[in-house]
Amino acid sequence: MTKQLKLFGWLAAVSAVGIVASFWQLLEKLALLENKDVALSCNLNDVFSCSSVLNASQSSVFGFPNPIIGLVMFTFFLSVAIFGLSGAKIVKRLALTIQGLALFMLGFTLWLFYENTYSTKAICLFCLFNGTAVVIINAVMLRHNTVYIPKLKRLTTKGADLFGWSLLWLAVAFAMLLKFA
Question: Per-residue confidence at 1, pLDDT binned at 50, 70, 90?
């Protein structure tokens, strides 16, 4: 299996996870809009409380539910993955644009995690799946883009990029743990 097929296989898998998590989260948000007292399937306790997160003002940053952004973006990334899995070459400008969108999603996700943890004081399980998918999408695109930015090759050859992405996600988990411990 070539490097491109492996990378786009990962991109397809995590994009599909993101689509499912975003769709389920959107269904939960719609259920809450219909009945504010509904018991959501993702409410486990006071900390893991989708209701708290989905009722917060941050859950509709642009005036519509955030899961819609997830559905659109993960569908886009899945389309890119299918394109790559078909053997097509993604040109430099498009590849760097995809990386930029992935980085935007990462920044948005990190901001939402901060807001959920420190303002809303709750964690959404679907957000954890989506956040993990966003980190992996960034890692995949960074590795793919070594073709266009040769200096990245040194970073990816010894796995420093994967260490960095893992460290970022562990730092997020640690920050959440400190808040709720």
Answer: low
